[in-house]
Amino acid sequence: MKKRNTKILLVDDEPDILEIVGYNLAQEGYQIVTASNGKEAIAKAKKEMPDLIIMDVMMPEMDGMEACENIRKIPELNNVIITFLTARSEDYSQVAGFDAGADDYITKPIKPKLLVSKVKALLRRSKEQEARSETLNVGGIEINREEYKIIKDNLVIALPRKEFELFYLLASKPGKVFKRDEILDKVWGNEVVVGGRTIDVHIRKLREKIGDDFFKTIKGIGYKFEV
Length: 227
Prior knowledge:
Helix content: 40-55%
Largest sheet: 5 strands, parallel
Distance between the termini: 35 Å
């Protein structure tokens, strides 16, 4: 994924944030598109088809949480990377963010070099995951990595990128007990800082969408971890 072909949508109601963050990322060669609220973010995302969305949580008209949930309902945007931009003083739950469909979060204020590093890590991990295309059949479920979809009982179940990658990893080695650090490294990358609760949130969402029986019948998938 060449930088000049990589498009980033920045969403924040503070013009200074858009200017500073946009400038630093543009200096790295990324194409930058901006929006000032959640409703505008959804419209821009549909039009521009960004590779990454960096979105504030607290915004007028529509906040980042609701915007993220709506973007995840758009099939062609299901695999876009979404990271929240949050202030330390905000009453913000990281678990709620992952529930809304976010892949990561960035706390502001953030130093430009660290911001660029996190963006590079997110995009690099996305590129590595897309490069591996393979179809698995486990427990009666077809897992198509190339198209980021699973098929169960002839029904297609669409999953956000991180949920799919976690499910694919666990299903690829039935019976293996994964350590949390190993899962975080393989799915989120060791340069992206997320908490252990992230795994729990994604496993819960997978169980809701796929069915708890699938996880219980295949040893080692989704319910047994070494701490």
